[in-house]
Amino acid sequence: MPVNETLATYSDYAFHSSVGIYLLAMLLHLGEYARVRARAVLAREAALAREAVPAGALAEPVGALAERAGAVVDPAATVVDPAGTPPELASAGAPRRSWPERFGRMAVALTILGALMHIASVVIRGFAVARWPWGNMYEFISAVCLMAVLTWLYVLRRNPGMRPLGAFVLLPVEVLLFLAGSALYVKAAPVVPALQSYWLTIHVTAVSLASGLLMVAGVASVLFLVRRHSRGGGFLDALPAAETLDRAAYRVTIFAFPLYTFAVIAGAIWAEAAWGRFWGWDPKETVAFIVWVVYACYLHARATAGWRTGGAAWINVVGLIAMLFNLFFINLVTTGLHSYAGVG
Description:
mainly alpha
């Protein structure tokens, strides 16, 4: 079936738009961190000021510190909220949102907009080629990143306090999408005969969804380890508690692991239909099995005394690295039945 070039072009436009929107959302999340850090410095200076001078002389110094950090100050206020929330304005009758809060909300709104553009890119690409749009590395990475963003938005809806993770989730997404749209981009075209199967929809969709979920879980475990082994200060003050990060990583992995297991099984069934065997220790199959074992070890460690915190998190990080290794090195460098070497 011929490719609809017009739709393919619109898909590319939507893809590039989503990359730009994600980048802007990530910058707003970083701006949220900068403002939160400034407010933390302000709070510490205000606390020192309260200890150094009589209570009646605090109004002017604290007000000056607040103005220097960009806060909205009530002339009657003498204490600055360490969380960065400005005091209520008597004239307005309601509290005003702080700049970190505004930056964070704008970042989430842009992430939602970027996800909608990303969905449009994938859907339009599918209509352009009249098939499920996971047929090459460009399309597959785009799908994985879309699943990661949708997972992140779901986690954020369930727990708004996780919003400070936004920049760290969008960073790998942005890097992967940049690589997909540049070095790995291919024009819309039909897939090779081996991929013209309904198993493309089943197997690759399951892999994409599981990989996107595991990417979010891996980022949460990385930040958990950083939070746990650091002394605090700087941007770390804005992150959720270490226990919250670890719990989020575990819950996402619990949901992703059965999906990944199903993807491996579906891949074996498709391999039997396409190549006449369920398993042949192809490099992709081998590393996919290793990734499965690593995540099985993580879930086991998470339920084992003495491993359920730091040790289990390290295993989850190893799983993230192994998954990304399988995604790039195995697909693009090694030679095998799953190889995409030479794409782009």
